[in-house]
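Hi R.,

As promised on Friday, here is the backbone we talked about, encoded as structure tokens. Could you run it through your design pipeline when you get a chance and send me back a sequence?
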């Protein structure tokens, strides 16, 4: 009986350590007790000569320029460790190549001179939104799934949880990448990133952060809320009957990014260890906590240098008796929510880059909306109404 009780007690301790993950030291000891075979190192493809492997991957990267054939490039990165490293060196960021390859591409700057066409499918019953990359020039196609969001109503605000997995949209998932939070009146919105968008980014205190600090919760619960953008709707003299004015402050992107040769912060990869991406005081040492407290929030100079966007003012059409914008044929349904974003004059002297449409959003169907990034509107295209009702 004594031996059996002892084995049971030891088993209970192992279970608590395995699922509780009370500290880094306990977790490391428990992991070392069960050796895991690294399949990436022992793959038979790892012995291919690097020169031959690089030549094959370069040709594959050049030939598979769009989805769905581009999935072969992603598959090569999952063969073994050597294949992954060479593939990451060959595949360029969307800003340079204009291609979306890995999930991290969704958090990197887009190309400057080409168009990225996406669309959103809304499910009213489940309050979910799915973002797809358009594979053809048609307004409706199957597309490639990119992101999913789920609407969560709260007493004082509304959250939209954003995930890489359409089947798992929870904050405790490893595919959680951020959220969008609106105030009670839905006039002000804040975009939060689960990972720091750049070095020195300050985490915002929220209810989830406080709970994570007070309780010994699972480390899979994301505690990082890094504000990356603030969106606000302004009232005009016509009230709700006129076109709305929208202003977006991109906290993590400097105003110089839209200038020729400008650089925007670029995240290269997701953290390999989920613990390294969270700002849980329970997992940090005293020196780390003191350094984070000393850093504090962004300074006033940094906020003044942030990129500011505004919606392009529509034109009044006398014949249609409505406000109109040039969407280049990508919008077919009139809606007050249709908009185009351009750089605000607050970023400096007005130039050619301030006339370029950086993002446009428009309605195509009842639950289908198009999102186009980096659009250069031309006067030869027809105008689409922003709102059909006269004011």
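Update: got your reply. Pasting your designed sequence below so it's all in one thread:
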């Amino acid at each position: 009986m004594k031996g059996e009780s002892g084995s049971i007690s030891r088993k209970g301790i192992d279970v608590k350590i395995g699922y509780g993950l009370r500290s880094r030291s306990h977790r490391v000891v428990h992991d070392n007790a069960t050796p895991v075979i690294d399949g990436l190192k022992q793959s038979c493809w790892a012995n291919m000569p690097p020169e031959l492997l690089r030549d094959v991957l370069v040709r594959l990267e050049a030939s598979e320029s769009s989805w769905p054939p581009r999935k072969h490039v992603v598959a090569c990165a999952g063969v073994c460790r050597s294949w992954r490293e060479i593939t990451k060196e060959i595949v360029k960021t969307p800003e340079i190549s204009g291609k979306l390859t890995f999930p991290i591409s969704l958090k990197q700057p887009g190309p400057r001179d080409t168009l990225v066409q996406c669309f959103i499918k809304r499910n009213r019953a489940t309050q979910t939104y799915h973002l797809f990359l358009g594979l053809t020039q048609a307004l409706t196609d199957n597309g490639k799934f990119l992101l999913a969001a789920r609407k969560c109503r709260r007493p004082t605000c509304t959250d939209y949880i954003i995930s890489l997995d359409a089947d798992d949209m929870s904050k405790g998932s490893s595919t959680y990448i951020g959220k969008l939070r609106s105030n009670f009146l839905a006039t002000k919105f804040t975009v939060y990133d689960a990972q720091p968008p750049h070095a020195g980014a300050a985490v915002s205190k929220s209810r989830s952060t406080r709970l994570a600090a007070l309780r010994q919760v699972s480390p899979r619960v994301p505690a990082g809320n890094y504000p990356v953008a603030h969106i606000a709707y302004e009232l005009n003299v016509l009230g709700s009957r006129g076109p709305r004015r929208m202003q977006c402050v991109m906290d993590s992107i400097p105003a110089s990014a839209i200038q020729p040769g400008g650089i925007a912060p670029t995240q290269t990869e997701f953290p390999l260890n989920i613990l390294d991406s969270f700002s849980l005081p329970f997992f940090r040492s005293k020196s780390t906590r003191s350094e984070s407290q000393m850093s504090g929030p962004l300074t006033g100079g940094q906020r003044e240098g942030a990129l500011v966007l505004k919606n392009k003012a529509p034109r009044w059409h006398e014949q249609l008796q409505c406000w109109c914008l040039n969407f280049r044929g990508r919008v077919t349904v009139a809606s007050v929510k249709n908009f185009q974003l351009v750089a605000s004059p607050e970023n400096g002297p007005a130039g050619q880059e301030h006339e370029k449409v950086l993002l446009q959003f428009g309605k195509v169907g009842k639950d289908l909306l198009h999102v186009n990034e980096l659009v250069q509107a031309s006067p030869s295209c027809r105008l689409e109404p922003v709102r059909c009702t006269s004011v």
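One thing I noticed while checking it: The first helix runs from residue 2 to 20.

Thanks again,
M.
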